[in-house]
Every structure is written in structure tokens, then in C-alpha cells.
């Protein structure tokens, strides 16, 4: 477990310092805003959907290292996936960070997202790790109201 914690720190710090897809998308087909009032994280997610496929996804905002790293890794994970595949990934990730890895959970299948498995031990951090994911869900479902983790 120590190796996973070390990897968690390394990956989170890397994605916080150099977030991937940290930009706006002017011609986004969908977008949504999210906020975590507990620690002040704010995010805006932009999505380009062609047919049923997520062709591009990006984010802007301010937040803690976990929030920014999760958003960065989320954007990398969702590009090229269908909306249905994105929903499945959301469900698996959300379960991972809220309950920990399930017995039948293949952490290898999650790739780098598996580093967030320890977040379930820190309930205050769950909201940081899931903010971007809830926000992209709102964008994919065309919801207009800002997402709040409260």
C-alpha cells in the first residue's frame, strides 16, 4: 500500500503543477460549472461531443491539488469515450473514492485513476476528488445549474 501512496503523491503533484487540458474550449457543445464550498474549489468543464463520442474535454478553475489533479486526469480518461462509457467510468471512480476499491474492482483497468483509491479514508477529500467528475456529469446531461458538493 505504501507504493500506491507514494504513486498517489507523485501523480497528484505532477497533475497539480502541470494540469492536462487546462484551458477553455470556445466551441464546446456542452459546459458546466462546479463548486466545493468546503474548500473553495471552483471549476468549469468544457466538452465537445460528436455523435455520442467525447472528442475533447477541458477545464478551468482554481482548487486544491487533489481537485486539480482529479480534473486533469479525468479529462485524459474521457477523451474518445462514449457518453455511456463516461458514465460507467464515473460510477467506478465515484465508488472507488467514496467506498474504496470493491472486491471485484480491477485497479489496473482504472489506470492512473487508481491512485485515488486511498481518498475514501479522508472524507473531506472525497469532495475535492469528485468535483470535476460531478461537473462533467452535469455537462454531459445538459444541466444548467452549477454543481455543488454540498
General description of the model:
With 150 residues, the chain is α+β, with helices and mostly antiparallel strands. The protein has a single domain (2-148), classed as Sufe protein. Chain: A (Alpha-Beta Complex), CATH 3.90.1010. The chain is built from 5 helices and 4 strands, in the order αβββααααβ. The chain has helices at 2-17, 65-78, 83-99, 107-110, 123-140; strands spanning 30-36, 41-50, 53-62, 147-148. Strands 3-2-1-4 form a 4-stranded mixed β-sheet, covered by helices on one side. β1 and β2 form a beta hairpin. α2 (65-78) runs parallel beside α5. The longest helix has 18 residues, at 123-140. The protein is globular and about 40 Å long. It starts with a helix and ends with a strand. The relative contact order is 0.21. The model has no long low-confidence stretch (mean pLDDT 91).
How many strand elements?
4
For the termini, the CA-CA separation is 30 Å
Uncertain runs are none
The tally of domains stands at: 1
State the CATH architecture.
Answer: Alpha-Beta Complex
Would you tell me which CATH topology applies?
Sufe protein. Chain: A
Summarize model confidence as the mean pLDDT.
91
Query: What is the CATH domain class?
Result: Alpha Beta
| Helix-strand pattern | HEEEHHHHE
Measured as a percent range, the helix fraction is: 40-55%
Number of helices: 5
Radius of gyration: 14 Å
Oligomer: single chain
Q: Biggest sheet, strands in spatial order?
A: 3-2-1-4
**What percent strand?**
15-25%
Structural class: alpha+beta
The coarse overall form would be globular
The main β sheet shows up as: 4 strands, mixed
Amino acid at each position: 500500500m505504501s507504493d500506491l501512496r507514494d504513486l498517489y503523491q507523485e501523480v497528484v503533484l505532477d497533475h497539480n503543477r502541470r494540469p492536462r487540458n487546462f484551458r477553455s474550449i470556445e466551441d464546446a457543445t456542452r459546459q458546466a460549472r462546479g463548486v466545493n464550498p468546503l474548500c473553495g474549489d471552483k471549476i468549469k468543464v468544457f466538452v465537445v461531443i460528436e455523435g455520442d463520442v467525447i472528442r475533447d474535454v477541458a477545464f478551468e478553475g482554481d482548487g486544491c491539488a487533489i481537485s486539480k489533479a482529479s480534473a486533469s486526469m479525468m479529462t485524459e480518461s474521457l477523451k474518445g469515450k462514449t457518453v455511456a462509457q463516461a458514465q460507467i467510468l464515473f460510477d467506478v471512480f465515484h465508488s472507488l473514492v467514496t467506498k474504496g476499491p470493491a472486491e471485484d474492482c480491477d485497479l489496473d483497468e482504472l489506470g492512473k485513476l487508481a491512485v485515488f483509491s486511498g481518498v475514501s479514508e479522508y472524507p473531506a477529500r472525497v469532495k475535492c476528488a469528485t468535483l470535476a467528475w460531478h461537473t462533467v456529469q452535469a455537462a454531459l446531461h445538459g444541466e444548467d445549474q452549477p454543481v455543488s458538493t454540498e
